[in-house]
Amino acid sequence: MRKSLAAAALVATLLWSGAAAAQTSWIHVRVMQDDGAKVNVNLPMSLIEVALDIAGKEIMKEGHHMRFGDHSDVDLEDIRRIWSELRESGDAEYVNAVDGDDHVRIFREGDRVSIHVDDTGSDAADNAKVRIEVPFSIVDVLLQGEGDELNLGGAIRELANADLGSLVSIRDDETEVDVWIDNNSSQN
What we know:
Blueprint: H1 2-22, E1 26-33, E2 38-44, H2 45-61, H3 76-89, E3 92-99, E4 102-109, E5 112-119, E6 128-135, H4 136-142, H5 152-161, E7 165-172, E8 175-182
């Protein structure tokens, strides 16, 4: 009976470990140019965490910290207060600006802030669309650092734990750039 129970526990552990490994989040970057050049980058988020940890140790060795506001008139506490107010505001359109062929919208829908920039100039090279999706949970964790420090490691872990989909999409007449996170080790 003990051997059967031990074997069942071992099988359950292996199955759970396999399922956890299959759920590893990956960040993908794809850049395609109209001349046929193409770059694909697929990295597990755990590697990003390790790289950030190593970089952080090097920065600390040099006596520096990852801080916000060292050269700014706005300190991180002000940003935290602004973020708190945005968080409480619910779905809203914060900015809608049109200047000639340029159109910028910053708005909240659900748990994301979206930034859309469209340049529809008459010059073919000017046609560009930028889409950035910022999940609230990522910014929440990022701003949980102490004092004037950002919680970069926590933000990376939050990214890794979420099935986010598209984060950045940039299109113009010559180049397409996509950045997204999912649980696939290759780009589909």
